Amino acid sequence: MILAIHRIALSALCLAFAVFPAQAQRMMNDEQILVQAKRVARGELVEVYRHGIDVEGAKFLRFAEEGYRGIEKVTGLKLDTATLGPRIQIVVSASAAVSHVWRGDDHPKDPRGVVFLSAMAYRGAMKRNNATYLHEMTHLFTWRFRSHTLREGLADWVALAVLPGTGVGPNPNGYDPKTAVPPLIADYLGTTKTPPDWLLLDADRRTAYYFASYRFVKRLIELKDVATFMHLYNSHSPEADIVTLYGMTREAAARAAGS
Length: 259
Ligand SMILES: [Zn+2]
What we know:
Layout lengths: L1 H18 L1 H16 L1 E5 L3 E6 L5 H19 L5 H4 L3 E6 L6 E2 L12 E4 L1 H9 L4 H10 L6 H15 L20 H4 L11 H4 L1 H21 L2 H8 L4 H9 L3 H7 L3
Parallel strand pairs: 2-3, 3-5
Antiparallel strand pairs: 1-2, 4-5
Helix pairs in contact: 1-2, 3-6, 3-7, 6-7, 7-10, 11-12
The site of zinc ion has 4 residues, from helix 6 and helix 7.
């Protein structure tokens, strides 16, 4: 019996590795990657590092610092340098198949101003057709979060406001507005629920989850403005405060966003 349970757990783990090998790997290796990475460029706002891959430091630094200013402009926010350090460190790593901030979703437990960027996201950034680096940088500007869907949706909205028409994260070809959002995903929008286990295991649902989060946040920002949205983002009770701030329930807001 114990062996059977062990086998099931091992199968689930293998599946996780098969679908997102570096996602599993990175949880062990963020620290190691950072130790091994070499700095290739340093500006006023950003430092660029490479790890197991060639990086055009000066050119990418320029894009990253323009992006930093773009994030400030569209959000009105400043980076919490007292907590995260004076510059954002972006590590372009061959070992990061999935781009993420330091410690991924657990970043608020150990906040550091570090982004790990996959080779694919880096190449897309250099071609100006992928804004994943802006998504991850936005996570640092908004590092305290309570709602995972508000966090991911805002990061996509900012990335696409700064670099419109590009791909982001699990949607490298951009968003198709006709995509329907399954009710299973709509139940998470604007809540403080823990992200579902299938988010790491099911690529199709992951794509839909990010799109739904983006569309939900976009709709709320269009209804009022970024400042009002940030009150919701920073709320400990977003499901109650959405009624106060927007005059509608979370469910109604999800429907209005096409879910
Ligand atoms: Zn994200």
